[in-house]
Amino acid sequence: MRARGVNELAPTSGGTCDEACRTAPPSADRPRLVRRVRLLVAATIAYNLVEAAVALTAGNLVSSTALIGFGLDSVIEVASATAVAWQFSTADHRARERTALRVIALSFFALAAYVGTESVRALAGGAEAGHSTAGIVLAAVSLAVMPWLSLAQRRAGRALNSASAVADSKQTMLCTYLSAVLLGGLLLNGLLGWSWADPLAGLVIAGVAGVEGGRAWRGESCC
Fold first, then answer.
1. Where are the alpha helices (DSSP H) in the chain?
2. Which among 28, 72, 80, 108 counts the fewest CB atoms within 10 Å?
3. H or E stretch including 16?
4. Which CATH superfamily is domain 27-218 in?
5. Residues 70, 182: contact at Cβ < 8 Å?
6. Which whole-number Å values give the CA distances from 17 to 7, 8, 80, 107, 169, in the listed order?
7. Mind listing the pLDDT tens digit for each residue in 182-204?
């Protein structure tokens, strides 16, 4: 679904979305928006450090591929947010945008490769995942928190015409989708004993991460 405000960012005649982000006129309120991006990045890093610690610990305890993948996504979100923080640490932040997008894209690809491989191994006869109450609670909390954080990031990024800031907001929104997938997989496994639901959720996580990695690499995020 296309978000409101896309027409203001899209090129009027040819060109890529990345070109539109680079050539759009600067915002009159740029300093305030830059400060907002920095605060949102700090909040993203803080939350995801806690999320990663809980998910990776709980996932290893019960051999949950989906939960471990969710924890790794949190680590990648920290890397993504750190790249945006690095970009906006200088006044000429547009000069660093291409590099920041590459870091975000490679982070997505790394997540897709690892979680996809581990999910296939689990489906092929690996260790079955056990029940994780901590994982269920974590997924539910993230499902409630992440949409609001992503929306704030996306609005600030679009106001600044920054493809990397919007890409980072998509990384945060991906966490929302993954929270829903993870929650479903953990509940099916815990309540019904469907152990295959956990690696299946992991494959969904890997697929979405791969798609978003491609979009970030091509610089399509501002659209």
1. 6-9, 17-23, 30-62, 65-87, 97-123, 133-159, 163-192, 197-218
2. 28
3. none
4. Cation efflux protein transmembrane domain (1.20.1510.10)
5. yes
6. 11, 11, 20, 21, 16
7. 788 788 877 877 777 767 777 88
CA 141 to chain centre: 16
Q: How far is residue 170's CA from residue 54's CA, in Å, rounded to a whole number?
A: 22
Domain boundaries, the chain: 27-218
pLDDT tens per residue across span 95-142: 777 887 888 888 888 878 877 887 787 777 655 566 778 888 988 998
User: Model's pTM, two decimal places?
Assistant: 0.66
Six-digit token string for 7:
């027409």
pLDDT exceeds 80 at position 167 = no
Cα(157)–Cα(44) distance, integer angstroms: 14
Share of the chain above pLDDT 90, in %: 3
Helix, strand or coil, per DSSP, at residue 95? helix
Any idea which residue has 């680079």 for tokens? 22
45-54, 115-124, 169-178, range with greatest mean pLDDT: 45-54
